[in-house]
# Entry
Amino acid sequence: MKVHLIRSKNYNVEDFNNVLNILRKNRGSIEFVPSEPIVIPAAMQEEIYDTKKDFETQKPFPESRDICSMFAENKISFPHKRNTITWEELFNVCKNYRRDSKIDENDHVLLLNDIPNENNWFGCVDSTKKNYFVQTNDWDWYLGRSIDTRFPVAYVIVSWLLRSLMYKNQTEIISSLHKESKGCMMDYCIDKTQIIIKMRTADLCPECLKVLENRDINRTYARQLFQIMDGLRENIMFRQRSQLLMQLSRMEIRGLSKSIYLTDLGDLQINLNPKERALYLLYLNHPEGIQRSYLIDYKDELRSYYAQISNQATNELIDIAINRLVDVRDNNMNEVMARIRSKFKNAVGEEQAKDYSITFTPEGTHKILLNRELVGL
Ligand SMILES: [Zn+2]
# Structure
């Protein structure tokens, strides 16, 4: 079975690739296939959220008025107005993609969408049980910086695939969702603070397990989905424990592009651009640290990293970029280091970012503090 992941044009491609990495970590009979970005219709329908609670509420699926509330940091002022897209439009994006790309009718098409949807759900499946959307926006609002948003996105994807596998049709799926949260994957209240609790359990309640047992469900698909869920749970546990135990993830530098992965955090890729990566590799290779004014002495090494991983067409462009970086009168190095720090902060949180980033030490040098035994090259 193939699951075609399509993304709306403004959903960050690096985040998309990271979600894909997470899903693909457990290979099996479900194959996740990425696609080119899709331009989806402009959000025309204006939605007004009078209160914070309105904003944090998934509107009920047909009649039920059950709502769930969520705790959140207050960063948006209410009433809050924004444009939304209808579910029909979202599912039409999947259908059109299916038609245009001649997708097999047994395959699933899942849109990762960054435009707010009309009912403010985190995802849903259509009546064919083959087309889905999953929201990629708003996670920061609910989770702050406490967790990388790629994990909940992957979690929601797997939840919907499992639901689609377990139940006969869309109506049955919706009616089977638990109105009261049980920490089960079938909970209706997919609010983003609760999702952390659910990712920690990443399991079905006994009632839902019975459904799984009693129905003719493809076990290899289900096993793979549970393995992905287990991986997500390990990541979240590692993240929470690691803060407590001051335990850092291992790092791997892979391929010709020298991409950086944190292996204990679900193979989380740190998306440094070529210039950031070149500077990072230089400091990684010099645990003793390098003083700002001596950076120029390492120009050849820096240049060789950059030449290998950048797409710059000419030597001249490579030289311009590197000269700026090592020039003490230019602020470029500080800017690049700040961006590296910010990307690690997004990925591992502020506390641990100090070990992974290039930091300024009291001795007056810049260095990466990370224990090099954790680094696989
Ligand atoms: Zn359940």
